[in-house]
Design a protein that fits this description.
Blueprint: H1 6-9, E1 16-23, H2 29-39, H3 45-52, H4 74-79, E2 86-91, E3 96-101, H5 109-116, E4 121-127, H6 138-149, E5 154-160, H7 169-186, E6 192-195, H8 219-225, E7 237-240, E8 243-247, E9 255-268, E10 272-276, E11 281-289, E12 292-294, E13 296-298, E14 302-307, E15 318-321, E16 328-338, E17 350-354, E18 357-370, E19 377-378, E20 389-401, H9 409-412, E21 413-417, E22 424-430
Parallel strand pairs: 1-3, 1-4, 4-5, 5-6
Antiparallel strand pairs: 2-3, 7-9, 7-15, 8-9, 9-13, 9-14, 10-11, 10-15, 11-12, 11-14, 16-20, 16-22, 17-18, 17-21, 18-19, 18-20, 21-22
């Protein structure tokens, strides 16, 4: 869902961690990213000069308004809030990082989902001055729930603005205990809590003298040590066909290739693959990556492959290894986040997009909607409104590979599109 400079990512063998900052409005997400950029020398001197002269700065003369490094839209700087996802890149000697600054306002929850869809870690910020009694804000609860639904493996809770509560250890422990209860409710198994001041830089890249009672790693060191995603088993492969390439059709050596991004696993010349939903099989005879012939490809590679026989394969078909038996179904069970400002009309058909496959879909049941305050399921809803999180059933016109998002995010994720407005109506995760 996001666009990154892949040449920067692939410049050397240093691994890359993609993470997102989330939380409520004014918890300090943009300031935290600005501090990370500053501490890792990811900011040019002229950028600091520019933000220091900005008419929108909200800090004292001696402190740069680091939020302005990520809040680039005029409306964001004017209102002091993040509206759209902003991607920033920085690096340390140990690792490269791609960070998405997510909006905190409820209205822009769908932007947060966009950034979180590819994240390997999430930093949930909590304003210590607002939650000193342990009461977590609604967006903190919502973003944590979404992070769990999207199966983000690593959660870091940054208790920010600790300088405003005089670095009170009791305040930190109270907030940490409250978040532990929330984590248990939504299904987050583990998290790291860190007391920080993003504006002052305490416990960001170095341990703070203000927290002698905190014995864990500072934030940046924790990010450096988080394990990145483990490779898929060699017995798996998922590639949605994006484009059928044909040229020299009049020639005896006519070329017919199938292009797409390998989402999971590996493929090699000689591998037998199966096409879904037709279930036909063939053997890979050649692989092209960036126009160059290669013997094998791995997850993340954009690839064109040719087969030893001509099959009816078109955009939206899924290729796997022939040894894999994938479940096909026209009836699906899913968790859904409604993103559209227009409420769900259960009588309407929507377009469902899974990978590159597009088909018609209709919601047949809303089992429950999650109360974001209590996190309890509420039954009986006949429609969905913007930002609702629901458990639903739907039927589709064409059979789809039905794999749970928790184990196969490449096939387990989908979006619903309003065919009248072409707006993304919902994001879903198969169960």
């Amino acid at each position: 869902m996001n666009t990154v400079n892949e040449s920067w990512v692939n410049a050397n063998t240093t691994d890359v961690l993609r993470f997102i900052t989330a939380g409520s409005v004014d918890d300090g997400k943009s300031t935290l990213i600005g501090r990370l950029l500053l501490d890792t020398r990811g900011v040019f001197a002229d950028q600091l000069t520019a933000i220091n002269k900005s008419k929108y700065r909200r800090t004292t003369a001696s402190e740069p308004d680091l939020a302005l490094l990520t809040d680039g839209l005029e409306a964001e700087r004017e209102q002091g809030i993040t509206i759209d996802i902003a991607y920033r890149y920085f690096a340390t000697p140990q690792r490269k990082f791609i960070v998405a600054d997510a909006p905190g306002h409820e209205q822009y929850t769908r932007n947060m989902i966009t950034g979180a869809s590819t994240a390997q870690a999430a930093i949930i910020l909590i304003d210590a001055s607002k939650a000193r009694d342990g009461q977590l804000l609604t967006q903190t609860r919502r973003h944590s729930t979404i992070a769990q639904l999207l199966n983000i493996p690593h959660i870091i809770v940054a208790v920010n603005k600790m300088d405003l509560v005089d670095w009170d250890e009791n305040v930190f422990n109270t907030i940490k205990a409250s978040y532990a209860k929330l984590a248990e409710q939504v299904g987050i198994k583990n998290f790291h809590a860190i007391p920080v001041s993003a504006l002052q830089g305490d416990n960001i890249s170095q341990a703070s003298a203000h927290t002698p009672w905190f014995n864990d790693l500072p934030l940046l060191q924790r990010l450096e040590q988080l394990p990145t995603e483990t490779p898929a088993p060699q017995t798996e492969a998922r590639l949605f066909v994006q484009w059928v390439i044909r040229h020299d059709g009049h020639s005896a050596q006519a070329f017919r290739g199938y292009a797409g991004q390998l989402q999971r696993g590996t493929l090699s010349i000689g591998d037998s693959v199966r096409v879904w939903p037709s279930k036909t099989t063939a053997t890979i005879t050649s692989l092209l990556r960036s126009g160059q012939a290669v013997s094998s490809v791995q997850a993340g590679d954009a690839v064109t492959l040719t087969l030893d026989k001509e099959l009816d394969i078109s955009r939206g078909d899924l290729l796997s290894l022939a040894t894999e038996k994938l479940p096909l179904s026209r009836t699906l069970e899913a968790d859904l986040c409604w993103l559209d400002t227009t409420t769900l009309n259960p009588a309407r058909h929507y377009l469902l997009k899974q990978g590159t496959r597009l088909t018609q879909a209709k919601l047949t049941a809303i089992h429950h909607v999650r109360d974001i305050e209590t996190l309890e399921p509420i039954s009986g809803s006949q429609s969905l409104h913007m930002n609702d999180l629901a458990s639903i059933s739907l039927t589709v016109r064409d059979p789809l590979v039905n794999e749970p998002y928790q184990t196969q995010p490449a096939t387990g994720a989908f979006i619903l599109i309003d065919p009248a407005t072409h707006q993304t109506a919902a994001a879903g995760m198969l169960r």
